[in-house]
């Protein structure tokens, strides 16, 4: 039963580690975000497999998104998503008003530009989870004011 | 009613799996980035005079604060007490396991932590081409970083590893010296 503090610290270490080993520049920044996102993807895939072993089949896409917002988010971040919006055409916006990975940073504008680094892993987590439930998607995140953030999920119709 | 209870224990188990899976993803990424296992081992632990990234060490440095805030243990008077606290309180709090302490050296400055099962390696197998990788090296870095913050310089290394076929996982801890508070350079 690993404590959540451990995960938080490990995650922050990973972010700073990936960035330290890269050089400056726009390209490098993108590469680092991709690395973190890919790591999140792997973890999301594995996690969703373990988690949904005994749960019932999902009725539809919306059901899956609600699962992510409630059970999945609660397991990973100890709280639910605060707000889920959709246009019923494949775009979902998940809003978390107090994102666990950002609460340790100063609430304000100071570190806004760095916030995206800390969201990349979680974007991958969502994408990986959905992928193993049979949904291909693109997940992006934005932060307008710490520690609230929004994850936008775009379902890719095959 | 029972469904709720099920969810409770399930979610505890899940958060430990989250950590295990994340650690696995990290090690995989490191293996991709660095060609040989030696470098990866260093990355996971940290060697003082290399400019490699200190991973486990950094985590340990911060973890100790969280630990002290939550566990209310007082100051340890000697290395034996420290060993007890590490095994019975710290490991239990963060990884849910209680390793046993054995193999005290005659001088009382070295001991072994025996972990029956290591939660970090729950779903892991080491492939042949990575046989020299010390997968759980992060733990050594964490122990070193945490103890350095409470003024103890120690060395931690893996002696046995279940991933390599041994029966148990054994970490050998050696006390080097007590760190005196140094005034920052320039201040008298």
Automatic annotation (TrEMBL), chain A:
Family under the similarity heading: Belongs to the TRAPP small subunits family. BET3 subfamily.
Chief place of localization: endoplasmic reticulum
UniProt xrefs under SUPFAM superfamilies: Ligand-binding domain in the NO signalling and Golgi transport
Record keywords: Endoplasmic reticulum, Golgi apparatus, Neurogenesis
A GO term from the CC aspect: Golgi apparatus
Protein name: Trafficking protein particle complex subunit 6B
Signal peptide: none
Keyword Endoplasmic reticulum listed: yes
InterPro entries: NO_sig/Golgi_transp_ligand-bd, TRAPP_component, TRAPPC6/Trs33
BP-aspect Gene Ontology terms: nervous system development
Subcellular location: Endoplasmic reticulum; Golgi apparatus, cis-Golgi network
Function noted in UniProt: Component of a transport protein particle (TRAPP) complex that may function in specific stages of inter-organelle traffic. Specifically involved in the early development of neural circuitry, likely by controlling the frequency and amplitude of intracellular calcium transients implicated in the regulation of neuron differentiation and survival.
Subunit structure: Homodimer. Part of a TRAPP complex. Heterodimer with TRAPPC3. The heterodimer TRAPPC6B-TRAPPC3 interacts with TRAPPC1 likely providing a core for TRAPP complex formation.
Keyword Ion transport: no
PANTHER family: TRAFFICKING PROTEIN PARTICLE COMPLEX SUBUNIT 6B (PTHR12817:SF3)
UniProtKB/TrEMBL annotation, chain B:
CC annotations in GO: endoplasmic reticulum; Golgi apparatus; TRAPP complex
Subunit annotation: Homodimer. Component of the multisubunit transport protein particle (TRAPP) complex, which includes at least TRAPPC2, TRAPPC2L, TRAPPC3, TRAPPC3L, TRAPPC4, TRAPPC5, TRAPPC8, TRAPPC9, TRAPPC10, TRAPPC11 and TRAPPC12. Heterodimer with TRAPPC6A. The heterodimer TRAPPC3-TRAPPC6A interacts with TRAPPC2L. Heterodimer with TRAPPC6b. The heterodimer TRAPPC6B-TRAPPC3 interacts with TRAPPC1 likely providing a core for TRAPP complex formation.
Lineage: Eukaryota, Metazoa, Chordata, Craniata, Vertebrata
One Pfam family, short name: TRAPP
Residues passing through the membrane, by range: none
Localization terms from the record: Endoplasmic reticulum; Golgi apparatus, cis-Golgi network
Gene3D superfamilies for this protein: Trafficking protein particle complex subunit 3
GO biological process: vesicle-mediated transport
Family: Belongs to the TRAPP small subunits family. BET3 subfamily.
UniProt superkingdom: Eukaryota
Principal localisation: endoplasmic reticulum
Function: May play a role in vesicular transport from endoplasmic reticulum to Golgi.
Protein name: Trafficking protein particle complex subunit
Keywords carried by this UniProt record: Endoplasmic reticulum, ER-Golgi transport, Golgi apparatus, Lipoprotein, Palmitate, Transport
Keyword Mitochondrion: no
Organism of this sequence: Daubentonia madagascariensis (Aye-aye)
Statement: the UniProt record of this protein carries the keyword Secreted: no
């Amino acid at each position: 039963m690993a404590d959540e503090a451990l995960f938080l610290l490990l995650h922050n270490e990973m972010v700073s580690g990936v960035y330290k080993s890269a050089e400056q520049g726009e390209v490098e920044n993108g590469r680092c975000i991709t690395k973190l996102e890919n790591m999140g993807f792997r973890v999301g895939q594995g996690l969703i497999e373990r988690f949904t072993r005994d749960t019932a089949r999902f009725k539809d896409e919306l059901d899956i998104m609600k699962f992510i917002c409630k059970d999945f988010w609660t397991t990973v971040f100890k709280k639910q998503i605060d707000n889920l919006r959709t246009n019923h055409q494949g775009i979902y916006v998940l809003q978390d008003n107090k994102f666990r990975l950002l609460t340790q940073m100063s609430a304000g504008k100071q570190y806004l530009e760095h916030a995206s680094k800390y969201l990349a892993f979680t974007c991958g987590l969502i994408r990986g989870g959905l992928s193993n439930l049979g949904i291909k998607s693109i997940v992006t995140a934005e932060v307008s004011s710490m520690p609230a953030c929004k994850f936008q999920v775009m379902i890719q119709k095959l | 009613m029972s469904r709720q209870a099920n969810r409770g224990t399930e979610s505890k188990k899940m958060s430990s799996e989250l950590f295990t899976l994340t650690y696995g993803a990290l090690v995989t990424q490191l293996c991709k980035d660095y060609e040989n296992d030696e470098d990866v081992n260093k990355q996971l632990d940290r060697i003082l005079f290399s400019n490699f990234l200190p991973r486990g060490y950094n985590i340990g440095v911060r973890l100790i604060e969280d630990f002290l805030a939550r566990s209310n243990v007082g100051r340890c008077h000697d290395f034996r007490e420290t060993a007890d606290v590490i095994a019975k309180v710290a490991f239990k709090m963060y990884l849910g396991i209680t390793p046993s302490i054995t193999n005290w050296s005659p001088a009382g400055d070295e001991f072994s932590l025996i972990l029956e099962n290591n939660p970090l390696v729950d779903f892991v197998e080491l492939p042949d081409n990575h046989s020299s990788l010390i997968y759980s090296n992060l733990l050594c870095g964490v122990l070193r970083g945490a103890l350095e913050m409470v003024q103890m310089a120690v060395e931690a290394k893996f002696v046995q590893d279940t991933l390599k076929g041994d029966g148990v996982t054994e970490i050998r801890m050696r006390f080097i010296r007590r760190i005196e508070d140094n005034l920052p350079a320039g201040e008298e």
